[in-house]
Amino acid sequence: MIKRTLEYLMEELAFSLGLDAGTDIHLENLKKLQDENVQGMVISLLNVEAEGTLKNSPHYVRKNNQLLYREPAVFLNLNALIAFKFDDYGTSLQRLEQTVQFFQNKRWFSKENERAANPVPAGVHKLVLDLQQLNFEHLNHIWSISGGTYFLTLLYKVRLLKIQPEDEVEGPEIDTIQLNSGIL
After folding, report:
1. Which of 75 and 11 is assigned the larger pLDDT?
2. Fewer CB atoms inside 10 Å of the end CB: C or N, the chain?
3. Which residues are paired to 162 by β-bridges?
4. 134: Cβ–Cβ under 8 A, 6 or more apart, which residues?
């Protein structure tokens, strides 16, 4: 689900900017940018966070008057970094600006606003993108880890990716509770 979501966003961005997904925009580790032959944009997953506010989901569902137990869904936030490497620095700046404009004009993706040529991945209800601020210290850590060369960078938080287990187990409905007070 994580890979397909990032591929979906890559394809949407490529379509918007008139670029070729896989040639001009890559879903790849940041280390890929250190290769001298690589040009374009790289989308890389930096971190995955659990959304803490949605942890109180029930462990059961009711289907056809039957109680089924299953683990609740996990909602994830993905921190996706977009880096720009073009021979011409002006082109990198232009692509960075176009990327910000695209995600500012279309901050969320769902079945309601999908393109027919690139449907939202199955199981995704809604993706919301928020531009995150990176200070110089964070940038230094990110690029030091990936090889030491800095490239123009945007960090987006992709919110509310739902991972739901499919396993359901039948369970009897609890209709009585027996209490033992311990007093004889």
Report:
1. 11
2. C
3. 75
4. 142, 153, 155
The yes-or-no verdict on residue 11 having pLDDT over 80 is: yes
Q: Buried b vs exposed e over 133-166: b needs ≥16 C-beta within 10 Å?
A: eeeeeeeeebbeebeeeebbbbbbebbbbbeeee
pTM over 0.85: no
pLDDT at 21 over 90: yes
The CA distance from 102 to 107, in Å, is 8
> Which residue range is the domain that position 123 belongs to?
2-51+75-160
Q: For the chain, what is the domain count? A: 1
Q: For residue 174, is it within any domain? A: no
Q: 104-125: buried (b, 16+ CB within 10 Å) or exposed (e) per residue?
A: eeeeebeeeeeeeebebbeebe
- State how far the Cα of 159 lies from the Cα of 49, in Å rounded to an integer: 9
Most confident of 57-71, 92-106, 116-130, 160-174: 92-106
